[in-house]
Design a protein that fits this description.
The protein is mainly α. It has helices spanning 17-37, 40-48, 53-65, 70-80, 84-96, 111-143, 149-180, 184-206, 222-230, 233-250, 255-263, 268-296, 298-309, 325-352, 358-386, 401-414, 417-421, 431-462, and strands at residues 391-394, 397-400. It has a single domain (17-453), classed as Growth Hormone, Chain: A, CATH 1.20.1250.20. The chain is 73% helix and 2% strand. The chain has a two-stranded antiparallel ribbon.
Length: 463
Amino acid sequence: MPYIYGPSNIRPKNEPGRSLKISVIEGSFATVHIAVSLGALVTGYALMLGANDFHLGLLAALNAMSTVGSVISAQVLGRLGSRKKLTVWGATIGRAMWALLCLLPFIHMMPGLRLALFFAVVFLGNTILSAANTSWLSWMTDLVPPEKRGSYFGKRSTMLGAVTMLTNYGAGWGFDRMKAAGLQEQGFALIFGLAALSAVIAGLILNRQWEPPLKGEKPLTLYQVIRLPFADHNFKKLLTFFICWSLSTAVAGPFFGAHMIKNLKMPYSVIALYSIIAGILNLSTQPLWGKIIDRLGNRPVLIFNLIGIFLLPLFWLFATPDFYLPIWADAFLTGLFWPGFTLAGFNLLLLTAPEQNRTSYLSIYTVATGFAVFLASLTGGWLANAFHGLKFMLLGHAVINFHLLFAFSSLARIFTLPLALRLNEEKARPVSTLLNLFGDKISQNFAGGWEAGVMMIKKMTRG
């Protein structure tokens, strides 16, 4: 039977196992919308409406600013006594609003006004969704047993990664063909409409998920919502790291897709191959990182993958319309390093935020990192637009405005490493343990391969 709004004080017989399975199904439908709304098609839609480089940075900034919606969760959950109603309605309405974008290209008005309405729909929808996301985080924290979080979210992310991969390629392939037939506006309408429909289906499925009793959430004033997290020393260290990390990544984040479309002249179906390559690696590495986290802790996994991630933007400096190999190399390494970093960071957040008024911690994290992304995206958009016509040769390669942002992002990422090393996690093993683990595996594989090769040579010589 479906579970209606509100937590039950008595755990049903098949819970939480039943709801953990439902979460994977619900997440699969929600991921269709997420993949479309965060993909290159949104950049292409904005460019169709007349957006310039600054507007692309502004779009990312507004997405980040919409995280103010998470404060709503912290203030109302204590009064509601439940996360389910806010999560179901917020997630469904926030995502379904993208259906309005299906109509926008066909409404006759000034191009600038269409672009403004596009920004308004995206901002309002994401603000509502932000409130739902923070509530969902609190819900899932109570639903998933702590000792299983690494493996569960690893497996869940693997499944959703496969959906993301298929969605990106299907949407890109379909749009390319509609665009080639002169149906660009209809292509956007079809894809955004299907994404909104998937969001509604996800909401109906999410309503069947059981909610454990809400513990420790008391009605808070806005001052209390802000004060509590900043009074927690460990949480402040985690928050400082993620603010700096958000600044370092978001200054260039809005322009990777734009670089593919505007400068590398990549079709959307080819752009989708980037996600497919990363997605295939994601499918393989998510369960592995989940098991490593359960064994060694989140901190060493986050630090290890941070070191691998910081160089990735530099690959983009060498890609040209006739040479995509650096992009594919970046996709391969993205699928290797980013899943572990994201999973470890997510688990560290859940571990560091205490049960007492946990939603206020999650909301402050969301707003603070969102504001960092807002500032970095605006700065990146301003710089990209200010150096729009920049082009010079360096070591035989043409350097343009986006390249400067990519290089700066890479440099800024490595400067967050000292902050990551200061993070605390009880019972987490040192980073050296993880390095030794990988070293042992590589040595074992090499030794096994060497022994097999020697045996094969001996057999051949005997013959």
